[in-house]
Design a protein that fits this description.
Number of strands: 12
Low-confidence stretches: 1-48
Strand order of the largest sheet: 1-2-3-4-5-7-6
Order of helices and strands: HHHEEEHEEHEEEEEHHHEEHHHH
Largest sheet: 7 strands, mixed, barrel
Distance between the termini: 54 Å
Radius of gyration: 21 Å
Length: about 450
Amino acid sequence: MKSHFIPILFFSILILFTACAENDEPGKNTGGKISTDTTKVVPVDTLTAALKDSFLVAKLNISTENKLPIDSRETYVKCTVTLKSGRSDWNYTGTGGIRGRGNSTWLWYPKKPYRIKLDSKAEILGLKSEKDWVLLASYRDPTQLMNTFVFTVGQGLGLPYTNHSRFVEVTLNDDNIGLYLLTEQVEQGSNRVAIDSKEGVLLSLDADDGPELNPSGGDNFWSTGYRMPVCVKSPEITSITQIATIQSDFALLENAMKTGNYDDVDKLLDIHSFIDYMLIQELVYNVEVDAPRSIYLYKNNGGKWIFGPLWDFDAGFDFDWSTMYTGHNYFTSYKELVLGTDPVNHTKGYAVPSFFTDMFRSKRFVTEYKTRWLAIKDKIMSNYWKTTQYYADGTASAMAHNAMRWPIDKNYATEIQHMKLWLTNRVSYLSGIIANYPEGIR
């Protein structure tokens, strides 16, 4: 850890947001409503201990039964998990299972991501109690910080159930396998997406998890309005009638979105969550909206659809897809666009499903979108990036170890500076683009 880290941390605590505090779940605290207060801070005495430790790196030891290899994304291998942190009350030992996870990250890259299911719920590194946890390898990401930055922005904007970042150096069966991001599994649960387990609905719009690549999953369908691949993550699907009902319910939202009528959509969708969600996608140039992949939204019975949680951003930041099997190339241009200069017509943008752009037909929506950007743009670097930099400082030593274990053709410290410059230029560029969006037609 850099020697100047602690003084900077305590001085900077004054500008950090409510959602960055330990155990803070914005959606749980606000009843699912999106916060419009982007200046609220937490008292210094509330943050000093919690945040200082959350920026540092814990040691995670995983021992599988009989040292069995983890070679499946479907079958868990029994294991013992031990965590050692700078805070003794965050230390943990327990049993459970571990398996692989991910799609391209599991298939293409030598550093593998994992999912852990504990036998008993537990608070892990100060995060709320649950069984299911994820270890993101971030092998493609040369900064190790892309998901952490987005989580930090999501927390700052008050998007409900935004994941948290905890960095761990992992030893698996006596083999040091590098630096990982430990975070929550996106799922229904009282300490996750807190919707009713039977009446609530959590959907993933995902080409890799939908009917094309998973045709016999029994929990997926093509949406009727925009023909998007949809997977039902909750509730558990037990009948054809059940999934048909969810498909019909989602179609009501799609049909309203097609009209671009603000009042019609507002009855079905928390529009403020949608605005924040799409601003983040454009900010980091997440082109996977195009497929789409890893797009989540949820609702409780009788409630509105809400966008989130945020997930999977190592294909953003102008990733060079021509080197997707081996490359770690990002940040070439800050002028590429997901939604384009005219989102309704996808001008100079990706041909993303019009589900994400038809609302730009509404004058009121466009006005609110522009107003929200003006409210948050100056905080992206002064607050959200600054928080991300604390993670970079706190993990610097572990990043160096990780670079030795998984050498790539990039220097992590240099790439973090490239990321900072790219975001700085991106914010300025997007300010001009968004200000000049067409005003809408209705």
